[in-house]
Amino acid sequence: MNRKVFIERTTIGISSLLVSPSLFAKKKAILQKPYPNATPFAIATWNVQKATTTAGQALDQGMNALDAAVQGVAVEEANLLNSTVGKGGAPDRDGNVSLDACVMDSNGNCGAVLAVENITHVAALAKEVMEKTPHVILAGEGARKFAISQGYQAEDLLTEESKKAWQKWLEEGHYQPEINVENHDTIGMLCVDKEGALSGACTTSGLAYKMKGRVGDSPIIGSGLFVDNSVGAAVATGLGEEVIKTVGSFLIVELMRQGKSPQEACEEAIQRILEKQKTKPDFQVAYLATNKNGVLGAYSIHSGFTYTIYKNNKCQNINVKSIF
Ligand code: ASP
User: Fold this and answer.
1) In the chain, what are the domains?
2) Checking DSSP bridges between strand 98-104 and strand 314-319, what pairing results, if any?
3) If 219 and its partner were Cys, which of 86, 96, 100, 306 is the partner (CB 3.0–4.6 Å)?
């Protein structure tokens, strides 16, 4: 094929793609709002009532779903008593607090930051990556520098409490991811606004005493969080390595697309993890999902996982079913 023929054929191919009615219809479905005249609501992993209420009330006042999710999770990022998210999060084994976060909106836009030090509000930073850079992910020092350029304050994220706990851990230095250490953990939040748009944010300090540079599922789009406005959304918490291996949140959304209920989809995603285990797992993984009609599902490997929902001026913490 000479160059001219190649260019002609390629141009015909591209222009037929551009006008293909089926492709156009698919694109429209993705951009369609999932719940016209929706009742706004916010759901989040674990018992985070202040964060979920903050997001829910903002939604009631007309805030869009993405901003509400970022504002909601910011409450836990700033909570010094939460040792699994933001400032006050447990450090890696060298004593550095490094944070991971991502966001995804109703149009399929997403942003993420990985292993960021000295910046508290990493979910907001992930949103800035999405909105102000040509990239989806910024990692480490690059993410930190970008934050400073956007006016974020560099802070020491290691509190006296978490420093003491880390020093105690160093005495033995035995590494073992723990199950449900606290009643809060990585916060993954999904919000639906008055326009019916669905968005989410996920933020964490990752596993306590991880290796420096370790990144879990939470900032990985499709693993810690996935949103598809025409289907639904899911978030994960627990041992990130296992969530990444099965691309958990994407899997749940795809199972819902195939007709599973959010509960069935969450249960199958947990089952995929268990299929690979030879013995009863000593780690936790938990999922929370909503479909486009606002039907929720949640499931975990071990008991102890809860989620929080704010809807119609009411905030509740709900116990979740588990395999064990
Ligand atoms: N999923 C987080 C991570 O692996 C940790 C957690 O949710 O507990 O980094």
Assistant:
1) 41-319 (3.60.20.30)
2) unpaired
3) 100
